[in-house]
Design brief:
Length: 240
């Protein structure tokens, strides 16, 4: 096993059902609030292994989902489940790459790689008329967060509250239609499989992998201790 930290990270994340917090109810809420048509063209941006593809297809049963992720093994994992479905296109690449047009862009927990303004600006020409975007972003749910709540995000410079997220969307030329905090079910749907994977990998883990496992366990503990103060906010936005 390689000692490279990124290799250890992907060893932990291999075979997880999803790459971030969320649940099918989040997709259903966004689709219903947006008034998504059954034949909608959807981009699942930074899809990971495809944990949300099923919910997206249920939201648009006669539509089409284009799922893209930079990490090829995640796309291969999605292909094992969805590769035979003609309603799904799977791609390895940058999440702003597909040209669309799309009626709905879904991005679970990955906008922070670019920043809200940069991501929404890049997606604007890829939206069909009337198209909407749903994205989740780190958010503070209190005006007085503890040090632990801040530490959970490991120095994320753009960490803000719901008003700050909406302001960044406005700066990119969008209006916020509705918001919803990702609930405990969504977080545990991500963390519990990870904890099972950690337990499986612990025996015989080298130093690099052990460090990654320790960090993941600390992340889980921090969220459980501070989940009332911080988490992901799911925002539904459209060009103003």
């Amino acid at each position: 096993m390689s000692d490279r930290p990124d290799d250890a990270f992907f060893t932990l994340h291999a075979d997880l059902p999803r790459e971030g917090p969320g649940e099918t109810a989040d997709v259903a809420w966004a689709a219903e609030t947006a008034g998504l048509r059954p034949d909608a063209r959807i981009l699942d941006a930074a899809s990971g292994p495809g944990g949300d593809i099923g919910a997206l297809l249920r939201a648009a049963p006669t539509g089409h989902v284009t799922a893209i992720d930079l990490h090829a093994p995640f796309i291969e994992a999605a292909r094992a489940r969805w590769g035979a479905d003609p309603r799904v296109t799977l791609m390895t690449g940058d999440m702003t790459e597909p040209s669309g047009p799309f009626d709905f862009i879904w991005c679970a927990g990955a906008v922070y790689f670019l920043g809200i303004e940069a991501a929404l600006t890049a997606w604007a020409p890829r939206l069909a008329p009337g198209g909407v975007i749903a994205f989740s972003e780190p958010c503070l749910f209190t005006d007085t967060p503890t040090d632990g709540a801040i530490a959970f995000w490991e120095g994320y410079a753009r960490l803000t509250d719901a008003a700050g997220i909406a302001a960044q969307a406005t700066a990119a030329g969008y209006e916020t239609l509705a918001t919803r905090a990702i609930g405990d079910i969504g977080w545990e749907s991500y963390f519990r499989p990870m904890e099972a994977r950690i337990a499986k990998l612990r025996p015989g883990a080298d130093a690099a992998l052990a460090a990654v496992l320790d960090q993941a366990e600390a992340e889980v503990a921090l969220w459980r201790a501070h989940r009332a103060e911080t988490g992901y906010l799911l925002s539904l936005v459209r060009p103003a």
